[in-house]
Design a protein that fits this description.
This protein has helices at about 5-10, 45-60, 70-75, and strands at about 15-20, 35-40, 65-70. The chain is of the alpha+beta class and about 80 residues long. The relative contact order is 0.25.
Length: about 80
């Protein structure tokens, strides 16, 4: 295995999945910041998406609750194009 392949495998593109109840479904302002559901931090988009989808499906009956995926790797290193 070349060094390039190893470095690509070792790269973590961290993603945060969280959600909570919104004040209004037309915006993104949470009713209770202390009540946010921090689902977790995931090493890649695919695993974050699976966690997001699971949580979103569990709360589908409540339009006020929304879950989001934050691309933490973009915040931590904004110069990368991943």
């Amino acid at each position: 295995m070349s060094n390039d392949s190893k470095s690509e495998q070792d790269t973590q593109l961290l993603h945060l999945v969280f959600g909570g109840e919104l004040d209004n479904i037309s915006g993104i302002r949470f009713k209770d910041l202390e009540g946010l559901d921090i689902v977790g931090i995931f090493p890649n988009y695919a695993s974050a998406y699976n966690a997001w989808k699971t949580k979103a499906q569990q709360t589908v009956d409540n339009a006020q609750i929304r879950y989001f995926i934050v691309h933490m790797h973009r915040l931590m290193d904004p110069e990368t194009e991943h």
